[in-house]
Specification:
With 204 residues, the protein is an alpha+beta fold. Helix content is 31%, strand content 25%. The protein has one domain (12-198). It is built from seven helices and seven strands; from the N terminus they run ββββααβββααααα. It has a six-stranded antiparallel β-barrel with strand order 1-2-5-4-3-7. β5 (90-103) and β6 form a beta hairpin.
Length: 204
Protein backbone atom coordinates (compact mmCIF):
# COMPACT_ATOMS: atom_id res chain seq x y z
CA UNK A 1 0.00 0.00 0.00
CA UNK A 2 1.45 3.36 -1.06
CA UNK A 3 1.21 6.12 1.53
CA UNK A 4 0.65 9.50 -0.18
CA UNK A 5 2.90 12.32 0.93
CA UNK A 6 1.55 15.62 2.11
CA UNK A 7 1.21 17.73 -1.06
CA UNK A 8 3.37 20.82 -1.39
CA UNK A 9 4.71 22.07 1.91
CA UNK A 10 8.31 22.64 2.83
CA UNK A 11 11.10 20.18 3.46
CA UNK A 12 11.34 19.07 7.10
CA UNK A 13 14.77 19.29 8.73
CA UNK A 14 15.71 16.20 10.75
CA UNK A 15 19.49 16.11 11.16
CA UNK A 16 22.88 17.06 9.81
CA UNK A 17 25.80 15.57 7.91
CA UNK A 18 28.57 14.15 10.12
CA UNK A 19 30.52 12.28 7.41
CA UNK A 20 30.56 13.06 3.70
CA UNK A 21 31.85 11.73 0.41
CA UNK A 22 30.72 12.15 -3.18
CA UNK A 23 28.73 8.89 -3.08
CA UNK A 24 27.60 8.52 0.52
CA UNK A 25 26.68 10.61 3.56
CA UNK A 26 26.29 9.77 7.22
CA UNK A 27 23.69 11.88 8.97
CA UNK A 28 22.94 12.19 12.66
CA UNK A 29 19.31 12.78 13.59
CA UNK A 30 18.56 15.70 15.90
CA UNK A 31 16.16 13.53 17.90
CA UNK A 32 16.62 9.93 18.98
CA UNK A 33 14.71 7.49 16.72
CA UNK A 34 13.48 10.36 14.52
CA UNK A 35 14.88 9.00 11.26
CA UNK A 36 13.06 9.12 7.92
CA UNK A 37 12.08 5.68 6.64
CA UNK A 38 14.10 3.53 4.22
CA UNK A 39 14.07 4.93 0.69
CA UNK A 40 13.09 8.50 1.63
CA UNK A 41 14.41 11.25 -0.64
CA UNK A 42 16.57 13.63 1.40
CA UNK A 43 18.16 16.94 0.49
CA UNK A 44 21.49 17.95 2.02
CA UNK A 45 21.72 21.72 2.12
CA UNK A 46 20.34 23.38 -1.00
CA UNK A 47 21.57 21.14 -3.78
CA UNK A 48 22.55 17.51 -3.01
CA UNK A 49 19.95 14.72 -3.11
CA UNK A 50 20.29 11.33 -1.47
CA UNK A 51 18.10 8.45 -0.32
CA UNK A 52 18.03 6.65 3.00
CA UNK A 53 19.81 3.32 2.61
CA UNK A 54 20.37 2.47 6.28
CA UNK A 55 19.24 3.46 9.78
CA UNK A 56 20.83 2.58 13.10
CA UNK A 57 20.80 3.65 16.73
CA UNK A 58 24.13 3.28 18.49
CA UNK A 59 26.01 4.43 21.58
CA UNK A 60 27.24 8.01 21.38
CA UNK A 61 30.47 6.84 23.01
CA UNK A 62 31.66 3.61 21.30
CA UNK A 63 33.78 2.76 24.36
CA UNK A 64 30.62 2.46 26.48
CA UNK A 65 28.57 -0.42 25.04
CA UNK A 66 24.79 -0.40 25.40
CA UNK A 67 23.49 -2.78 28.07
CA UNK A 68 19.98 -4.13 28.67
CA UNK A 69 18.09 -2.22 31.37
CA UNK A 70 14.53 -3.51 31.19
CA UNK A 71 14.55 -6.77 33.15
CA UNK A 72 12.27 -5.30 35.83
CA UNK A 73 10.39 -2.84 33.62
CA UNK A 74 6.82 -3.32 32.40
CA UNK A 75 7.38 -1.44 29.12
CA UNK A 76 10.02 0.21 26.97
CA UNK A 77 8.64 3.61 27.96
CA UNK A 78 9.33 2.75 31.59
CA UNK A 79 12.96 1.98 30.76
CA UNK A 80 13.45 5.45 29.29
CA UNK A 81 11.52 7.10 32.15
CA UNK A 82 13.75 5.43 34.75
CA UNK A 83 16.93 6.13 32.77
CA UNK A 84 16.51 9.62 31.24
CA UNK A 85 20.24 9.77 30.55
CA UNK A 86 19.71 7.33 27.66
CA UNK A 87 18.56 10.22 25.47
CA UNK A 88 22.05 11.68 25.87
CA UNK A 89 23.97 8.42 25.52
CA UNK A 90 22.44 7.20 22.26
CA UNK A 91 22.23 8.57 18.74
CA UNK A 92 20.18 7.64 15.70
CA UNK A 93 22.00 7.96 12.39
CA UNK A 94 21.16 7.40 8.75
CA UNK A 95 23.34 6.27 5.88
CA UNK A 96 22.45 8.17 2.72
CA UNK A 97 23.27 7.19 -0.84
CA UNK A 98 23.77 10.25 -3.06
CA UNK A 99 21.70 10.05 -6.25
CA UNK A 100 21.68 13.56 -7.68
CA UNK A 101 22.00 17.29 -7.30
CA UNK A 102 20.56 20.58 -8.45
CA UNK A 103 22.26 22.97 -10.87
CA UNK A 104 20.31 26.21 -10.83
CA UNK A 105 16.74 25.26 -11.66
CA UNK A 106 17.70 21.89 -13.18
CA UNK A 107 17.80 18.55 -11.35
CA UNK A 108 20.56 16.10 -12.32
CA UNK A 109 20.23 12.42 -11.49
CA UNK A 110 23.97 11.83 -11.23
CA UNK A 111 26.69 12.59 -8.71
CA UNK A 112 27.41 16.20 -7.68
CA UNK A 113 30.83 17.79 -8.28
CA UNK A 114 31.46 18.08 -4.53
CA UNK A 115 29.99 16.53 -1.37
CA UNK A 116 28.16 18.74 1.13
CA UNK A 117 30.07 20.13 4.09
CA UNK A 118 30.05 18.54 7.53
CA UNK A 119 27.12 19.89 9.61
CA UNK A 120 25.09 20.65 6.49
CA UNK A 121 21.43 20.31 7.47
CA UNK A 122 19.42 17.37 6.16
CA UNK A 123 15.80 17.71 5.06
CA UNK A 124 13.10 15.22 4.12
CA UNK A 125 11.85 16.40 0.74
CA UNK A 126 8.19 17.44 0.54
CA UNK A 127 5.94 15.95 -2.16
CA UNK A 128 6.46 18.78 -4.62
CA UNK A 129 10.23 18.43 -4.44
CA UNK A 130 9.96 14.64 -4.80
CA UNK A 131 7.93 15.09 -8.00
CA UNK A 132 10.45 17.63 -9.26
CA UNK A 133 13.36 15.25 -8.68
CA UNK A 134 11.82 12.07 -10.10
CA UNK A 135 10.05 13.86 -12.94
CA UNK A 136 8.41 11.55 -15.45
CA UNK A 137 9.46 8.39 -13.63
CA UNK A 138 12.60 7.56 -15.61
CA UNK A 139 14.90 6.07 -12.97
CA UNK A 140 18.23 7.45 -14.19
CA UNK A 141 19.31 7.55 -10.53
CA UNK A 142 18.81 3.78 -10.24
CA UNK A 143 22.02 3.05 -12.10
CA UNK A 144 23.95 4.65 -9.23
CA UNK A 145 22.30 2.36 -6.66
CA UNK A 146 22.66 -0.74 -8.83
CA UNK A 147 26.36 -0.15 -9.54
CA UNK A 148 27.09 0.67 -5.92
CA UNK A 149 26.45 -2.91 -4.80
CA UNK A 150 24.67 -2.07 -1.54
CA UNK A 151 24.21 -5.01 0.82
CA UNK A 152 20.43 -4.50 0.71
CA UNK A 153 20.43 -2.79 -2.67
CA UNK A 154 17.26 -4.36 -4.06
CA UNK A 155 15.28 -3.43 -0.95
CA UNK A 156 16.67 0.11 -1.04
CA UNK A 157 15.79 0.65 -4.70
CA UNK A 158 12.29 -0.77 -4.25
CA UNK A 159 11.80 1.40 -1.15
CA UNK A 160 12.89 4.52 -3.06
CA UNK A 161 10.30 3.83 -5.76
CA UNK A 162 7.54 3.10 -3.22
CA UNK A 163 8.27 6.28 -1.26
CA UNK A 164 8.49 8.43 -4.39
CA UNK A 165 5.23 7.03 -5.78
CA UNK A 166 3.32 8.52 -2.85
CA UNK A 167 4.06 12.02 -4.16
CA UNK A 168 2.26 11.42 -7.47
CA UNK A 169 -1.47 11.61 -8.21
CA UNK A 170 -1.21 8.33 -10.12
CA UNK A 171 1.35 6.29 -8.13
CA UNK A 172 0.67 3.14 -10.14
CA UNK A 173 1.58 4.88 -13.38
CA UNK A 174 4.79 6.20 -11.83
CA UNK A 175 5.75 2.71 -10.64
CA UNK A 176 5.06 1.15 -14.04
CA UNK A 177 7.23 3.71 -15.82
CA UNK A 178 10.00 3.36 -13.24
CA UNK A 179 9.84 -0.45 -13.40
CA UNK A 180 10.33 -0.39 -17.16
CA UNK A 181 13.40 1.79 -16.71
CA UNK A 182 14.83 -0.56 -14.08
CA UNK A 183 14.14 -3.49 -16.42
CA UNK A 184 16.40 -1.89 -19.02
CA UNK A 185 19.18 -1.45 -16.47
CA UNK A 186 18.86 -5.06 -15.29
CA UNK A 187 18.20 -6.66 -18.66
CA UNK A 188 20.84 -9.30 -18.00
CA UNK A 189 19.69 -10.13 -14.46
CA UNK A 190 16.10 -11.33 -14.60
CA UNK A 191 16.18 -12.84 -11.11
CA UNK A 192 17.20 -9.55 -9.53
CA UNK A 193 14.66 -7.59 -11.57
CA UNK A 194 11.88 -9.93 -10.47
CA UNK A 195 12.96 -9.57 -6.85
CA UNK A 196 12.67 -5.77 -7.08
CA UNK A 197 9.33 -5.83 -8.91
CA UNK A 198 7.86 -8.17 -6.28
CA UNK A 199 8.55 -5.47 -3.69
CA UNK A 200 6.44 -2.91 -5.58
CA UNK A 201 2.64 -2.51 -5.16
CA UNK A 202 2.03 -2.42 -8.91
CA UNK A 203 -1.66 -3.16 -8.41
CA UNK A 204 -2.19 0.09 -6.48
Amino acid sequence: MIQPLVPGGSAARFGEVVEASIERLLGQCHRLYAAPVLGTLVRAGESVYAVVEGIETVALDPTRPIVARGAEAASEAEVYAEHPQLERLLRTQVTLSVIGHREGSDVRQYLPPLPPRIHTFLHVCAAEEVRDFFGDGRPDFASLLIRRGLSAGDDVLAAVLRQAAGAFEAPGDFLLTASRGVAVLLAGDTARLNAIVRRLPLGS
